[in-house]
Amino acid sequence: MAVGKTACSRRDAGPTNMDLPAYIECRADVASYNGFALRVAGEPDFAAGLGWKAVAGENPFLQQYRLPAPIEAFGHSTDLIAFTSTGPMAVLEGVAAPELAERLGIVPVVSTPEKFLGEKIIHEVSEDSGGVTYVTRISLNVSTVEGLPGKILAGCSYALDVK
Length: 163
Known about the structure:
alpha+beta; eight-stranded antiparallel beta sheet; 8 strands
């Protein structure tokens, strides 16, 4: 699915027509993802209705869920996902962050034995309207986090900034 096409509409982000891998792999647009994310964050029973089980974690900036069945993301299977403040991430095992980043064309910003962080901008556009600039940005990210040893986060950041 190309950027600009929706993984599902904001109203229809339900169990039967949701394409979670599309959100994770940056194959959805900002409006579609934000509609889905608002339901996950704002409707207490939405995630449970999808069969997702919240997973407690040490990182207050990640909301983790165990899925009822594995999904395929970036060629790897996982049943654990995490949401950051800007997007969904697959929690992957059995792959090194630098290797996955290289395969996805992601340039590392930080690459040490302790930490990896890389980003690739998929789509970015600025629009001016009445003295206000709206910046839409979709970026693919690969990272490691201290609270998930031996695992990497790979997913998408959907951002709409007003300047």
